[in-house]
């Protein structure tokens, strides 16, 4: 055997990519995915006596997260969350291939209850909310104030300085602030 034997060149493995390295998804595509998840998830939740409160789909440091908030009278249990996660996860794997790699989280709304549906802004009228918009309104994208109602797909929000009209289509994210059923001004006892 010759001293000049060929050595295999060691190839450097390409850097590993995580889901967080994925290119950003357009806001419109995210909205389409959220709408599709609502369409698939609402009937599933309703069949279990559960309300699908909100669906969020966003990119975080650990990758893309599909977060569902569910509720029912008396509150949801861990078993409710696990059942919805299992059933919806299986359904999404088949019906929503374009979603790519994601983590599915299902939980109760908690005290910072998300507002996902137009009806939620009317339902929680009189409660304090934080709203983030996709485009600036009066030079700002973040607002905090009391929900005053809904008219023609526009949310009325009373802040410390004035009242704002926020088009529903511009809302990127909205949540109640420190909400509990005990503080719900619309609850009649």
From TrEMBL:
It is found in: Cytoplasm. Keywords: Cytoplasm, Ribosome biogenesis. GO terms for biological process: ribosomal small subunit assembly; translation. The keyword Transmembrane helix does not apply. Residues 1-11 have a biased composition (Basic residues). The keyword Cytoplasm applies. Residues 1-28 are annotated as: Disordered. Residues 42-110 form the Ribosome maturation factor RimP N-terminal domain. CDD domains: YlxS_C. GO terms for cellular component: cytosol. InterPro entries: Ribosome_maturation_RimP, RimP_C, RimP_C_sf, RimP_N, RimP_N_sf. Pfam families: DUF150_C (PF17384), RimP_N (PF02576). Residues 117-177 form the Ribosome maturation factor RimP C-terminal domain. Belongs to the RimP family. Required for maturation of 30S ribosomal subunits. This is Ribosome maturation factor RimP.
